[in-house]
Write a structure and sequence with these properties.
0% strand, 166 residues, elongated, 4 helices
């Protein structure tokens, strides 16, 4: 049980670091600093890999505890584990504290990531707007030429640049 609690503690610490990285990402996204964003993304990737390893260890310990208690692994949620520890109030309190802290840190991470997602989407919309604007500046308007069936032929006027030979 001590190893499980320790893995939760470590996981909460690592998620806290991930929250801090996500918070650092917000001004970088606003500035549009691609190089800094790439560097921060690499750090995030390393951290999430570390969290995944801790998570795998925690899952293994949960399976061990489920086997000892003769419970199904799927039933071994943190909430159920807290209820099962009613004979061990000290560990029950520590698990309840862990549940509260992990819920808090994951909620904060979700909030920051949602904010960053909105900023990235806005930046992408702005890039798309700029590209559309540049494309339209390079294209000349269509002429009002019609064929004998009254269909627009859609011919474009000149290339849109200044021709000094004219």
């Amino acid at each position: 049980m001590e190893e499980l609690i320790s893995s939760f503690e470590t996981e909460i610490t690592e998620y806290g670091k991930l929250v801090e990285l996500s918070k650092k990402k917000t001004p970088i996204i606003v500035k549009g600093d691609i190089e800094a964003l790439e560097k921060l993304t690499e750090e995030e990737s390393d951290l999430t890999s570390k969290i995944k390893n801790i998570d795998n260890f925690r899952i293994a310990k949960t399976v061990e505890i489920a086997n000892v208690l003769n419970k199904k692994t799927e039933e071994m949620t943190l909430t159920n584990l807290i209820e099962l520890m009613d004979t061990r109030p000290e560990e029950q309190k520590r698990l309840a504290d862990i549940k509260e802290r992990i819920t808090s840190v994951l909620g904060e991470l979700k909030k920051v990531n949602e904010q960053n997602e909105v900023l990235i989407n806005q930046a992408m919309e702005m890039v798309e707007f700029d590209l559309t604007l540049f494309r339209s500046l390079r294209q000349a308007p269509e002429t009002a030429n019609y064929d004998k069936r009254a269909y627009n032929t859609g011919t474009l006027l000149g290339g849109g640049g200044f021709d000094a030979s004219q």
